[in-house]
Amino acid sequence: MQFETCHIPGLVIVTPKVFSDSRGFFFEAYNRKPFEEAGITANFVQDNQSQSSYGVIRGLHFQRNPFAQSKLVRVLQGTILDVGVDIREGSPTFGQHFSIELSAENKKQLFLPAGFAHGFSVLSETAIVAYKCDNYYSKESEGGIRYDDPELAIDWKIDPAKAIVSGKDLELPLLSESFANFTY
Ligand SMILES: Cc1cn([C@H]2C[C@H](O)[C@@H](COP(=O)(O)OP(=O)(O)O[C@H]3O[C@@H](C)C(=O)[C@@H](O)[C@H]3O)O2)c(=O)[nH]c1=O
């Protein structure tokens, strides 16, 4: 299992060790010990799974305290562009985002600690996404940011005319509306 960091502290790219043989392959998607050794001590309590077709963008979502969630995201089928936006108050990288292609083929996972807004776009015909969360779903604690906030300028790598976004997500506020007190 390989753990890599990126330009935003806290985000971790996890690449499993894959054992291939004549039957197919095997890998450990999660094992508490190496994750803890890599500094990921999240106590996962909920597993989610969604299926989406090409052009779907889900996000950008987060939950407020006391239900803020760390997430470990992977793809069971297809390819997505997974995106994390730093919304940690006082963070030097506040408002910056990181994106990475996660696919059933590359088997990469993205760990996002609490304090990140999360979203993904579907780059393949369909995609099944699975993610572990270390806090329970709480409708009352849900928050979000517009996926097409010009300030974030996220390239979702899909034709904007083909974007499929839920009515709920289209009504999300901009980063500057949610975090009005923050100055760059
Ligand atoms: C997230 C969630 C939703 N639901 C319900 C609420 C709603 O009726 C239905 C669909 O919810 P949503 O439209 O919010 O689903 P979705 O847009 O897929 O929401 C997810 O997006 C990705 C990007 C995340 O990071 C997740 O944390 C989550 O916010 O499922 C649960 O019962 N439990 C959950 O944990």
Automatic annotation (TrEMBL):
GO cellular component, one term: cytosol
Active site: 61 (proton acceptor), 131 (proton donor)
Zinc in keyword set: no
Site (Participates in a stacking interaction with the thymidine ring of dTDP-4-oxo-6-deoxyglucose): 137
MF terms in GO: dTDP-4-dehydrorhamnose 3,5-epimerase activity
BP terms from Gene Ontology: dTDP-rhamnose biosynthetic process; polysaccharide biosynthetic process
Pathway where this protein functions: Carbohydrate biosynthesis; dTDP-L-rhamnose biosynthesis
Keywords from the UniProt entry: Isomerase
Pfam families, per the entry: dTDP_sugar_isom
Gene3D superfamilies, per the entry: Jelly Rolls (2.60.120.10)
Reaction it catalyzes: dTDP-4-dehydro-6-deoxy-alpha-D-glucose = dTDP-4-dehydro-beta-L-rhamnose
The EC number(s) this enzyme carries: 5.1.3.13
UniProt cross-references to NCBIfam families, sorted A to Z: rmlC (TIGR01221)
Family classification: Belongs to the dTDP-4-dehydrorhamnose 3,5-epimerase family.
Function: Catalyzes the epimerization of the C3' and C5'positions of dTDP-6-deoxy-D-xylo-4-hexulose, forming dTDP-6-deoxy-L-lyxo-4-hexulose.
Quaternary organization: Homodimer.
Designated name of the protein: dTDP-4-dehydrorhamnose 3,5-epimerase
